[in-house]
Design goal:
By secondary structure, this protein is an alpha/beta fold. It has one domain. It contains three helices and ten strands, in the order βββαβββββαβαβ. Strands 1, 2, 3, 4, 5, 6, 7, 8, 9 and 10 form a ten-stranded mixed β-sheet that branches. The chain is globular.
């Protein structure tokens, strides 16, 4: 994936879907191949809905989303220690850029406000370029068509947000 050509990502209607905080959908083809398993995204269909959706992390790093762009989002890896819960700002010299995407329109102010209030986003990664319902193939059984829906093949996790006033260099 080239960070110079961002992919089209989708903001999900999180309230209509019963999600507690704003959510985005990212197509798997725009991410490193092992993103889901390496970072601990949970399959949507098998996760226990009574448990909170986990924040993703691995090897002392955690993923964060930067939504400061009017219609874009960067997905970054930063040291997990940044989110210690002490309330003290932490400095990250150079976060690792994992992926860059943009949306078809500017982030709605109420969506952005809800995300910053939650200090997080839910990120769903799925096999399709967009989270849409597809028609069944000619002669395909309804059960098989349903199994191909993005929601049954997606994985989800929570990511922290970059604070609105945060500054760092991006290469």
């Amino acid at each position: 994936m080239s960070v110079s050509s961002p992919l089209l990502w989708t903001r999900l209607a999180y309230e209509d879907l019963g999600m507690p905080i704003p959510a985005v959908y990212l197509p798997q083809r725009g991410l490193p191949p092992d993103t889901r398993s390496m970072w601990g995204f949970e399959p949507v269909v098998t996760r226990d809905s009574d448990k909170p959706i986990p924040y993703v992390n691995r090897d002392g790093l955690t993923l964060v989303a930067d939504i400061r762009s009017p219609d874009g989002m960067d997905l970054l890896a930063v040291p997990e220690a940044v989110f210690t819960g002490t309330g003290k700002p932490a400095y990250v010299a150079e976060p690792q850029l994992l992926a860059v995407g943009h949306f078809t329109d500017a982030h709605p102010p109420e969506w952005k406000e809800a995300a910053y209030t939650a200090q997080a986003l839910l990120v769903a990664i799925g096999p399709d370029d967009a989270p849409v319902l597809r028609q069944a193939y000619p002669g395909e059984s309804p059960v098989r068509a349903i199994r191909r829906l993005w929601i049954f093949n997606a994985a989800i996790a929570a990511v922290h947000l970059v604070a609105p006033g945060r500054r760092w260099r991006r290469h």
